[in-house]
From TrEMBL:
Keywords in alphabetical order: ATP-binding, Helicase, Hydrolase, Nucleotide-binding
Organism this protein belongs to: Klebsiella oxytoca
Region (Disordered): 186-208
Taxonomic superkingdom: Bacteria
InterPro entries registered for this protein in UniProt: Helicase_ATP-bd, Helicase_C-like, P-loop_NTPase, SNF2-like_sf, SNF2/RAD54-like_C, SNF2_N
Segments forming domain Helicase C-terminal: 730-887
Protein name listed in UniProt: ATP-dependent helicase
Compositional bias annotation for Basic and acidic residues: 190-208
Entries under Pfam families matching the protein: Helicase_C, SNF2-rel_dom
GO molecular function annotation: ATP binding; helicase activity; hydrolase activity
PROSITE patterns for this protein: HELICASE_ATP_BIND_1 (PS51192), HELICASE_CTER (PS51194)
Length: 897
């Protein structure tokens, strides 16, 4: 309808239904309304009026009554109310009784009625079907108002990318135009004709409504959907969730203000309820082994946990837990979540808040989660609470756990000061390791120090224990469990670097009487072999610190040693190993099962969550997830990483314990040779007995290497039965670790027969190697194979390969049986350490503890001139031995540890 203007009014038809006295009323009213009358044309085709008067303008004003109906107002019109007052609605230029929307504006219409002389003959009209009379007036159409209907439809479909059935939603907006209570849609001319009703539509106005939707991002829907019935109107759609959310939150309120009628169906997915607040509730168990977490919102006056709805959503769309997929969502994007309340509600969660929640749930929900109001979690999972701490949540409870989570999230080792009395200058990376161990102690957490071999894991541990003692925290001893062969090394390094520590080695048959003295010491040493036997006695105490050296010894969690280690009570736990992972991830799980039970779940859960996805399917996301979870508790530095902190060549002495068979043979040979040497000295004098002394020392050195080298022994190689060798066993374990680290090894021995025994052992283990001895004719071939990286181990006889070779591919040198002239040893080591070497070189000397090998080493340090003269190939001018030196060289073995 348009308001009255000065322009000529449009022609209209006036038709009145039957009512008592309607003809008389019309006859009396029209002259007063029309003024003058001149016959001109016919007015109504079904009227008794045949003649019409000159066209006149009549103005009808329709106003909103208190009962929300529009009624004709006669104010200002001449005459009385003979024609009556009727509630009306405008439909296609017709007028009929109908209640209108209360928000529809009052309408003013303009109509022209022609009146003429009345004919004597009148038109017979049938009685109306409605009980009330109806006034239909063909008029200029009013401006339509828009009705927008919103609906959704959800169905299941197969997603090719994920290979799973997923819920698929379709959303539609239907546009219709309301003319006096009647809805039409589509282009004009398509609506059906009805008796005594005709609608003249306003295409221009309808197009304005369409353009409004297009400006808001809507496009005509090209595919059929069950979201709305076709009769709802012209179908439109938006490109995605964010567009729908933006429309509902920003654009829809403006459309309502502009007079649009909005019809939101109950199933529409974006009919949102505003969120009043967010909350998090933590309930911590008394033993601090677990806690319960609830995350939720305040909405519509209710406190609602989000976890059941999020869990169900994750089950349907697992990609929500993918960090890469999450990162693609902008913080302002929103996720619509349906809350199963009565009645159900939908809320929009911004990804800026949702990302930390889903990141935390990715830890908790690696498997197939079950919807639940609260999560029951192990204490290690508290680390993820730090991700939630940044959100504007109202926290309830869990202050201790949240503090732990914050410290762990911003994990950075607090700089530690080396303890007083430590007789070593810690390199920067070693000081970092000490600081890391101190920080773990503050967090009541365990850790794995996984530095490469030779970077000083033992020294860092001793510094840590000494610092704990000086701080007054070492009120009970620290216990270190290690392979038997490492007992001498720990004793030596403790005495050398931390003499203030009181050290007790629980080893050997006499160890039981030392149990009562444990509390008198700061550091107690035992072995993996003895731990299961002594578990009952050790289990009576609570140690301040429990350290597993060469912790790969418990890589099988079901071994007696692993079980016994887990059962020991200690405030803090540490693992030392250069190879925390050798064969599979289960070995790493075993270490953390000892350190922090539950951190990686049980074995079955760990296999399901990590081992199978990573090892069988190459799941990099799970690998990254596991690495992130372990990062604060695993410190590993390779030699390449700390090369700038190391000298160009580092040298280490590794003490090895003889096997029982070696000890027996060593003592037998030593007694015989001691008599022979003393008899020779008595007969010829010390200076002229040199050859006999060297021959005796050579035989003792062979026993230190392997009993099979001394063929005269009746149970030795001549009989074909190999006796055990502590040094060979130590070497093979050492090579396993070095090769696992990717190291390239030169192995020197004076005895080619010893190299043959090592060859046999390497073949049995499937280790590739090359060999160079005096009998090797083509020296270039093994050198080229090693330098090209085809083999990790090069076996070299000291005499044949000690000079003339360039082996810069090596970064490790092992002297299996050290040459007594240090200059010869240095020349051999320089095969790797020479011009062209771009890696740090590490030199290891294997020394049988308590034997002639150790005695000679002491002589090298204390009497360099004597050692040089004794073992030089010159004339022996420096040879100056006395009776005390002979006594030391041929002294009995110390008591076994």
């Amino acid at each position: 309808m348009r308001p009255v203007t000065d322009s000529p009014p449009a022609r209209a038809w006036l038709v009145m239904g039957r009512r008592p006295g309607w003809k008389q009323g019309l006859a009396s009213s029209l002259p007063r309304l029309a003024g003058t009358a001149t016959p001109r044309s016919r007015v109504a085709r079904r009227s008794s009026i045949r003649k019409v008067c000159d066209c006149i303008s009549i103005t009808f004003a329709f106003v909103l009554a208190p009962d929300d109906r529009q009624v004709a107002s006669r104010q200002g019109l001449p005459g009385s109310d003979e024609c009556g007052s009727y509630p009306v609605a405008f439909v296609r230029r017709a007028i009929r009784p109908s209640p209108l929307c209360a928000s529809a504006p009052s309408l003013v219409i303009s109509a022209v009625c022609g009146f003429g002389w009345f004919r004597r003959r009148t038109y017979r009209m049938t009685s109306p079907s409605a009980p009330d009379t109806q006034l239909s007036l063909a008029i200029d159409p009013a401006r339509p108002y828009a009705r927008l209907t919103l609906g959704s439809h959800v169905h299941s479909g197969y997603d090719l990318r994920s290979g799973r059935m997923q819920s698929i939603s379709r959303h539609r907006a239907a546009l219709a135009f309301i003319y006096a209570g009647e809805a039409v849609s589509g282009r004009p001319g398509s609506e059906p004709r009805e008796a005594q009703r005709r609608i003249e539509r306003r295409p221009a106005h309808e197009q304005e409504y369409r353009e409004t939707l297009r400006r808001l991002g809507f496009k005509p829907a090209t595919r059929r959907s069950d979201a709305l019935e076709e009769s709802a109107g012209e179908m439109f759609e938006l490109p995605g969730d964010n567009a729908w959310l933006h429309f509902m939150q920003d654009d829809l309120p403006r459309l309502r203000q502009q007079g649009w009628f909005i019809d939101i169906r109950a199933d529409f997915a974006y009919d949102l309820t505003p969120i009043d607040a967010w909350y998090a509730e933590v309930e911590e168990a008394d033993d601090r082994q677990w806690f319960e977490l609830e995350l939720g919102i305040q909405v519509a006056g209710q406190r609602v946990s989000l976890l059941p709805a999020l869990t169900e959503l994750i089950r349907r769309s697992p990609a929500l837990l993918d960090p890469r997929a999450l990162a693609r969502h902008a913080d302002e994007e929103q996720l619509v979540l349906r809350l199963e309340l009565n009645p159900p509600l939908r809320v929009a969660l911004p990804f800026g808040r949702l990302k930390p929640v889903l990141a935390a749930l990715s830890d908790f929900y690696l498997g197939d989660p079950e919807p639940q109001r609260k999560l029951r979690l192990g204490a290690p999972d508290a680390a993820r609470l730090a991700d939630l701490d940044e959100l504007p949540l109202a926290w309830e409870g869990g202050d201790n756990l949240r503090d732990f989570a914050r410290r762990l999230r911003s994990f950075q080792a607090r700089p530690a000061t080396p303890p007083q009395g430590l007789r070593a200058e810690l390199r920067p990376y070693q000081l970092e390791g000490l600081s890391w161990m101190q920080t773990l102690r503050e967090l009541d957490s365990g850790g794995v120090l996984a530095d490469d071999m030779g970077l000083g894991k033992t020294l860092q541990s001793l510094a840590h224990v000494l610092l704990e003692k000086q701080a007054g925290r070492l009120d009970t001893p620290a216990l270190v469990v290690m392979p038997t062969s490492l007992i001498p090394n720990w004793l030596d390094e403790a005495e050398r670097f931390a003499p203030d520590l009181r050290v007790l080695a629980l080893h050997g048959t006499g160890r039981r009487r030392d149990f009562a003295r444990i509390d008198e010491h700061d550091l107690v040493l035992t072995t993996y072999a003895l731990l299961p036997r002594d578990a009952a006695e050790l289990g009576k105490r609570r140690f301040h610190l429990l350290i597993l050296d060469e912790a790969q010894n418990i890589k099988n969690a079901t071994t007696k040693a692993a079980v016994a280690a887990r059962e020991l009570a200690a405030r803090h736990r540490l693992c030392l190993t250069g190879t925390p992972l050798e064969n599979h991830l289960g070995e790493l799980w075993s270490l953390f099962h000892f350190l922090m039970p539950g951190w990686l779940g049980d074995a079955r859960q760990f296999a399901q969550d990590y081992r199978t996805p990573i090892e069988k399917h190459g799941d990099e996301a799970r690998l990254s997830h596991l690495a992130a979870r372990l990062r604060p508790f695993l410190l590993r530095r390779t030699k390449e990483q700390v090369a700038s902190e190391l000298p160009p060549k580092s040298e280490f002495t590794q003490f090895v314990e003889l096997s029982e068979a070696q000890r027996e043979l060593y003592e037998t040979v030593r007694l015989a040779l001691d008599r022979k040497v003393r008899e020779e000295i008595a007969r010829r004098g010390l200076a002229r007995s040199r050859i006999v002394i060297l021959e005796a020392l050579l035989k003792l050195r062979q026993v230190c290497c392997d009993t099979r080298l001394l063929q005269r022994h009746e149970d030795g190689a001549r009989s074909g039965r190999a006796l055990s060798s502590g040094k060979l066993a130590y070497l093979l374990d050492m090579l396993d670790e070095l090769i696992a680290e990717g190291r390239r090894v030169l192995l020197f021995s004076q005895f080619t027969s010893m190299l043959a025994l090592i060859e046999d052992a390497l073949r049995q283990r499937g280790v590739d190697y090359v060999l160079l001895t005096g009998e090797t004719r083509d020296r270039r071939a093994p050198v080229q194979r090693f330098q090209s990286g085809k083999v990790p181990v090069f076996l070299i006889s000291l005499k044949a390969g000690g000079v003339g070779l360039n082996l810069t591919a090596a970064d490790t040198v092992i002297h299996y049986d050290p040459w007594w002239n240090p200059a010869v040893e240095n020349q051999a080591s320089d095969r790797a350490y020479r011009i062209g070497q771009d890696k740090p070189v590490f030199v290891y000397r294997l020394i049988a503890r308590g034997t002639v090998e150790e005695k000679i080493q002491h002589l090298q340090q204390e009497k360099a001139a004597l050692a040089d003269g004794l073992f030089s190939e010159g004339n022996g001018d420096g040879w100056k031995l006395d009776e005390a030196d002979i006594d030391a060289l041929f002294a009995p073995l110390p008591k076994a540890l």
